[in-house]
Amino acid sequence: MSLDGPRLERFSEHPSEPSYGVGLSGDMERTEGPQGSQHYSLRWNNHQHHLLSAFDSLLQNESLVDCTIMCEDGGVRAHKVVLSACSPYFQKIFIDNPGKHPIIVLKDVLVWEMHSILDFMYKGETSVPEPSLTSLIKAAESLKVREIGRAHV
Predict the structure, then answer these.
(1) Fewer beta carbons within 10 angstroms: which end of the chain, N or C?
(2) Counting beta carbons within 10 angstroms of the beta carbon of residue 16, is it exposed (0 to 12), middle (13 to 18) or buried (19 or more)?
């Protein structure tokens, strides 16, 4: 059976046990599982790319944002789930203080630094002028942003 979308194919984590996954072409395969039941597995092509783009779009449009970060010179809005996934600092704040729309006040972090940190969190990269790099890394490390220390090497 051929579809315009995902392709189903057989895979196994353990060669002796049947399991199923979806390939990248656009075909669909139906296989027989234990006790004769039919098994289907689906894989979303470019799923990671789509999620990154979707989260970035939500941030740019300030859609579904659920927290505000107040910096020394202004504020930015973001998504708790993204901040938590990228920083144990933010994760602990949100777990210890559950609320609909928390406001986090950051001392010694400027808005441009927070925007760059958010770019790094949402896109996996950011770009800053060389004279600003040390300041950005210091801010990101104080917020325990994962991978930021290795990113500038």
Answers:
(1) C
(2) exposed
**Per-residue DSSP letter, 152:** T
Confidence (pLDDT) at 107: 92
Spacing of C-alpha 92 from chain mean position: 17
pLDDT at 29: 53
Q: Which DSSP state fits 42?
A: -
Distance, CA of 18 to CA of 93 (rounded, Å) = 43
Per DSSP, what are the bridge partners of residue 78? 67
Q: Provide, rounded to the nearest whole percent, the portion of the chain with pLDDT above 90.
A: 51
The letter for the amino acid at 113 is E
Q: What is the pLDDT of residue 20?
A: 40
**Burial class for 116, CB neighbours closer than 10 Å (0-12, 13-18, 19+):** buried
Of the listed ranges 16-25, 32-41, 44-53, the least confidently predicted one is: 16-25
Task: Find out whether 108 and 100 touch, Cβ atoms under 8 Å.
Answer: no
Using DSSP's 3-state secondary structure scheme, residue 119 falls into: helix
- Amino acid identity at 51: L
Instruction: Dihedral sign for Cα 135, 105, 62, 145, please.
Output: positive
